[in-house]
């Protein structure tokens, strides 16, 4: 008999939570690629401002020269307005529509991390994903996301992990599964 003490790895926590629109939006935001995030952050507003600026400049020049304003100048400004409306009105509306159509919002979820895979139940629905089918994972301040394809992830809110040991056990599970961190 050995006196050596070996600590068994703690079982990953069972996560129980109610999915909210905030959870769904966090997954959608986390799912954007680096290039998309870069373009949204650094190219969107300069492009909108340039569009409005060129449109105003062309319209101003036409008015100064006492020429009729060409429709192309107005369309150029309209494109900028449509871009802003699309980003801040249409995209949030589409997300809300999708979560309502999918009947996800307000549904109780339970996630179990096992040796062979991840089991998830939501009401009467049940799914099991083999560990090998999880492509990678990402982490934000409030969530873990386990990506099963480029656009879909298992959402694991950190609020559902009740102890620091539970978060450490989940991190150990992820390390054992050898999932790569996404971006």
Q: Keywords, please?
A:
183 residues; alpha+beta; four-stranded antiparallel sheet; four-stranded mixed sheet; 4 helices; 47% helix; elongated; disordered N terminus
3D structure, described in words:
This protein is an alpha+beta fold and 183 residues long. The strands form two sheets. The protein has a four-stranded antiparallel β-sheet, with no helix packed on it. A four-stranded mixed β-sheet has the order 7-6-5-8, with helices on one face. Helix 2 packs antiparallel against helix 3. It is elongated and about 80 Å long. It starts with 14 loop residues before the first strand and ends with a strand.
Low-confidence stretches: 1-8
The average pLDDT value, as a whole number, equals 87
Sheet with most strands? 4 strands, antiparallel
The gross shape turns out to be elongated
How much helix is in the residues?
A: 40-55%
Number of strands: 8
Ends apart, CA distance between termini: 47 Å
Give me the strand/helix succession.
Answer: EHHHEEEEEEHE
**Biggest sheet: strands side by side, in what order?**
1-2-3-4
Structural class: alpha+beta
| Beta strand % | 15-25%
Count up the helices: 4
Radius of gyration: 24 Å
